[in-house]
Amino acid sequence: MAEGHTVEGRQFRTKADYEAALRDKKKIDAIRAKVDLNNPQDVLALYEQMQGGTYRFESMVGNDFDDRIYELAEKYKKSGANPPGKQAKAKGKALKSKKNRADGGRIPEKKSSGKNSGRISLEDFDKDMQKEIAAQLKARDRRRKWLVALCSIGAVLGFGYFITYYYVAERTEASYEELASLKNSEILAEPVNNSEEKKVIVVRGQEEEIVLPDILDEYKTLYNKNKKLIGWLKIDDTIIDYPVMQTSNNEYYLTHNFNQEKDNNGSIFMDKDCVAYPRSQNLILYGHHMKSGKMFGDLEKYAKESYYQKHSIIRFDTIYEKGVYQVMYVFRARVLKENEIAFKYYQFIEANSGEEFNSYMNEMAEMSLYDTGVTAEYGDELLTLSTCDHSQTDGRFVVVAKRIQ
């Protein structure tokens, strides 16, 4: 790793990560130049701005600064300091109350201007000019009414959009809560006999005919409801608790939910080239980065090592067997062009040798935002969670875990 790829004590492997860190450092230097970090009011005001999205960071350098401001803000809050906005509001109320007491609460009267106030009336002009002025006033009034109407329509449409958005979000959440309740249910759990069901799949470049194992009792009802179900993903103490789907393409479940209805939230789904049984070495799951936090909207929280430490275990069951995984690598990447020669995590499903597997592990370790201390060997089973990363063009945010049970 080149010495020039070090920023604020952090080392960066790729030029893109290094440049992102430099951009973050430039932002941080600008903030420090105008904010006194020893002044509680300055720090609390800065913290509110950062919470509101005024400043966004792209690298661990920015995350370190974000953590520092959070710690300072919590410290100052505990000491009794208030954000400057609250102080100004309280001060304004006090001044207003004081003024009202001083003048006895009376409202000042406006002075009459009288006839000789210098105002000009319509009658001061000739008839032709009066008609022209009247026409201009009428046209202005018409424009004002159109503007009000357009603003009203925009407000109604905007309000309707938000109502629809939150309705769909609530409906989606209720739908997944209902699906979760169907786990271990026998409502639709008629026997699913796979002992006679054969499937031709490609294993390590060769077609093989295999007999699928029985579906776990826990998922029989859900499977009979939608036979595109391939598993269930859950991360404790997070919103991620979803069925996982799989089809012959990677497009359908970008825009459809479990019930095969059109839904902008889409679904969590497994890469079409992955096989649940016999299991591919690396199972790749995709999900939208929704602003509401739905699907993989909260996955980016793993950018902070403190979040990883509290959520290091991921549970992913295929419909055939249960699995527990430990987070190993967390990194940002891009979808590369086909002719670009570089490591493409989304193409790593099987390693043909120990050397190839170790090469993949080294690539991901170099890209990882921090060292978890977790490693893998050839033969270990992996799980990759992937979502969009809006901090860069065609960006992706990726969490890779190793199966431990």
Can you summarize this structure?
The protein is α+β, with helices and mostly antiparallel strands and 405 residues long.
Give structural notes:
This protein is of the alpha+beta class and 405 residues long. Among the domains are: 3-78, no CATH class; 227-403, Sortase, Chain: A, CATH 2.40.260.10. The protein is 37% helix and 17% strand. It contains eight helices and twelve strands. The protein has helices at residues 15-34, 40-51, 60-78, 84-102, 127-181, 220-225, 305-310, 354-367, and strands at 6-7, 10-11, 198-203, 206-211, 229-234, 241-245, 268-270, 282-286, 313-318, 324-334, 382-389, 395-403. It has an eight-stranded mixed barrel. Strands 1-2 form a two-stranded antiparallel ribbon. It has a two-stranded antiparallel sheet with strand order 3-4. Helix 1 packs parallel to helix 3 (60-78) and helix 2 (40-51) crosses helix 3 (60-78). The radius of gyration is 31 Å and the shape is extended. The protein starts with 5 loop residues before the first strand and ends with a strand.
Structural topology:
Elements: E1 6-7, E2 10-11, H1 15-34, H2 40-51, H3 60-78, H4 84-102, H5 127-181, E3 198-203, E4 206-211, H6 220-225, E5 229-234, E6 241-245, E7 268-270, E8 282-286, H7 305-310, E9 313-318, E10 324-334, H8 354-367, E11 382-389, E12 395-403
Parallel strand pairs: 6-7, 8-11
Antiparallel strand pairs: 1-2, 3-4, 5-6, 5-9, 7-8, 9-10, 10-12, 11-12
